[in-house]
Each structure stands twice: as structure tokens, then as C-alpha cells.
Design goal:
Number of strands: 20
Strand content: 15-25%
CATH architecture of the largest domain: 2-Layer Sandwich
Structural class: alpha/beta
CATH class of the largest domain: Alpha Beta
Largest sheet: 18 strands, mixed
Mean pLDDT: 85
CATH topology of the largest domain: Endonuclease, Chain A
Number of domains: 2
Distance between the termini: 44 Å
Radius of gyration: 22 Å
Number of helices: 15
Amino acid sequence: MTMAVYPPQAAAWEVPRGRSHVGNSVRPPSWARLLLVTGLLLSGCARLPEVNYRKAPLEAPATPSVVDGQGTLSDKDAASVLARRLGHSRVNARVLAGLEEAATGRPLIAGNKVTLLFDGPKTISAMMAAASEAKDSINLETYLFDQDPLGMKFAELLIAKQKAGIQVSIIYDCVGTLGTPQAFFDRMQEAGIRLLPFQPVSPLHRPWRWRINNRDHRKILVVDGKVAFAGGVNITEAYSRGSSFRSRSRPIVAAGWRDTHIQIEGPAVAALQWMFLDNWASQQEGNLPERDYFPELPSMGDKVLRVLKSQPGSNHEIFKAYLLAIQGATKSIHITAAYFIPDAQMLKALLGAAKRGVEVKIILPNISDSWLSSHARRSFYAPMLKAGIRVHELKSSVLHAKTAVIDGGWSTVGSTNMDMRSFLHNKEVNIIVLGDGFGREMEDAFREDLRDSREITLVQWNDRPRGQRFKEWFARLFAYWL
């Protein structure tokens, strides 16, 4: 039997040399900034699909589909795996898994080892350790890749591996890397690394397919097709330092960004590998050389997970999975969100959960790298607080994590922000992990972040100055494009 999450063999891949994206410089030139603004204004307003399984029932399978390294499990074996992993107390978990499959079209993948990684130093160290052990291929997809001490160190490792005969291929977003000198990428390309600049800023590169508003926000690393990483961590100096998370001394001076990533070993790695290769092919910039991208993947652990992606014009599977989980929550919804500008459906689902007695707690940034998104986010506080949602702001670090744990057994880590940009216009990746064990790890991390956060109360919020209210109103006007 063949797994449903990826084809059994990759095609031959090759890429032309000498390709570079237009607009990379230390500071984005004025014409590039003008093109970005123009592209955003001309992009129009797309809409997310309506998701309400109570109003429009989904035809969910009685037993959700489960695959592993050998293929698709029988209904009996799938039911056995889910019974072991979901726990006896999660009577609704199997129903949710079936609804999620019906909405997203993605099966569950069993037999994985999943390791939570917190903040830059631990994540970058684990990624570099895996890359150092590569024997065949390294595929990296990232939004930011800066020419700074951390970026240079990472690039030097990739160049060394390429020279040692390991094929290194990189997809990097052209807006995310606008401030990175082109010479930084040229040096990697000269070493033989295959580079694909995603959606170049200049419309002259591909005038008939120019989509400046559609960005690649994923962070994926796949080594030898056997170990994969995904989450929120970029390759930039902000991640060279740890945040105050689990620090004995608070606050940390010049703390790094607070983020979450995961490392995966087992059959699910193939789904992330295919996501990378599919993205490369979608840009029509040439192919990659033949490598053993899909080796046999035996069971490496007991985690059952689902790999979800989103991209413009897709079926919005990450958005659907989030909404279904929130709508089906019976006990708790704990969300950590770097950028939180929910659409009407997401806000309604959160308000509804709180009103029906579900404990809804959200950790949001106090320190932000975006003035507009910060004020737009705070424009949602009043209705949430009135509904009983407890809102907290992380104090001493820039929050960049995008995670959630619902009812203690449905967890997600990924690159997706809870805003229209991520759900509609970006390429994103999220991993959903089912089970109480991983859920406890996520809950422990959530409680740790709560200890370093301050709660916003309704009384306090109603007392905020008029000037702040005006900034929230003004920023909300641009919420769709943030």
C-alpha cells in the first residue's frame, strides 16, 4: 500500500543557475516599498469559507483515516491507535478528528516522535545539529534569512555540507529578505546550493504572475527526508538569545524573541518533504536534482499528528481546523498568538466558547514589532473581555509563537498567525498533534508564559485614554492587510 500523504517517488529536479530576486539590499529601495503598498491595495479582499459543522453537518468518517510508514491502516487498527493515543477521557476527540479530516482532506499520521523546541538557541541548535549529520539532502524553507552573525553561521554550515556532496536547496521569501544583501545569497549559490527566491518583488520578473501580496511565511527544514522541523523560528539574530521563558532570572536584559518550534521524526516527515517540493515546483523556476527525498520511514514514536498547509486559493485547511477545534471545545482553549487580528467567524467562535462556559485564555504580545497590528489587535479586547475571555500580554520578550492547545488533547504548532494575512494570503504550515501527553507539555509551556504575563481586566481596559482608543480604531481600518 502507498501512503496518501505523498507520492512514492519524487520527480527529477533541476534548477537554472544565476537566478536571483530583484530588490535585495540592506534597505528596501523606494520603488520596492511603493510596489509593496500598491500590490496590497490592488489585491482586493478575498473571503474565508464559512465553517460551522453544527449548521452544515460534515460527512465525517466513523473512524478517521490513519496512515503510517507502511500505508493506510485498516479501520480496526486505526481505531486501536486512536483509542491508545487520545485517552479515555477525550470522548469527543475521535469525532473532532473525523470532522477535521472531512474539512481538510488530510489523514492522521501515526508513529512519530515529536519534540517541542522553545526559543531560538534551542531550536537553531537542534536544526544545525540535524543538518550537520545530513548524508543526502537538506531542504530549507524560510521567511527571514538575515546576513547577521546567526545567519552567517547557518549559511556557513549549509555551504560546507554542499561542498561535502550533500544537496542543499533553499526557498526564501523575497519580501521577508528584502533587507538581506544579494551577495549573501550569491555566495551560497556559487557553492552549489540551489536557491529559489519566492515571489520576487519586481513585477518584471514574472509580469503575468506577479502576486506581491502572496508570501511564503513557512519555516520548514527537512534533512535526508528523515527528520523535519516546523514552527515560528526564522534565521535571524533575534533568535540568537533566549527569552525569559523558563529563566531563573527575570527580566532578561535584551531578551530574544519568545517562539515555539517542533522537531519531527517518523512517517510525517514525508508530508513536510512533499510540501517543500510541491512549493518549489509551483514557482516554475526549474527543478531539483534527483535525491532520495522519500526514504522508508519506520515508526519512531507514538505521536499521532496531522500536517496542514495553507496557501492562496487553497481550501484553507488550517483555518478550518482551528475553527472546528474551537467550536467543539468543551473544557479549555489556550492560545498563544504573536499577531491576533481574527476575522468575524474566528471571533464569534471564541466568544461563543467563552459564553458556553469553556475556559478561554489568550496570551498576546505586550512588546511588538508592528505598531499597526498591535493596535488593531487591542481593538478586539473589549468584546472578548465582556464575553469572559481572559486576555494576557507577555511582558519581557517579543512574542512570536503561534500555538494552541484545546481541551488538553488537541495541540497545534506552526507558522500561522491568527489573522487574515496568514489564513488567506500566505503559504503557511501547522502541525496538529493529538493526545494528552503532548497536550500536557503544551499546557506546561502555556502556564509558564502566563507567569511572565500581565492580565488585562475589563475595568482596566475601559479606563484607557481616548488617544489609545483612536489608535485602535485607526489600525482596525487596515486589519485585513496586516
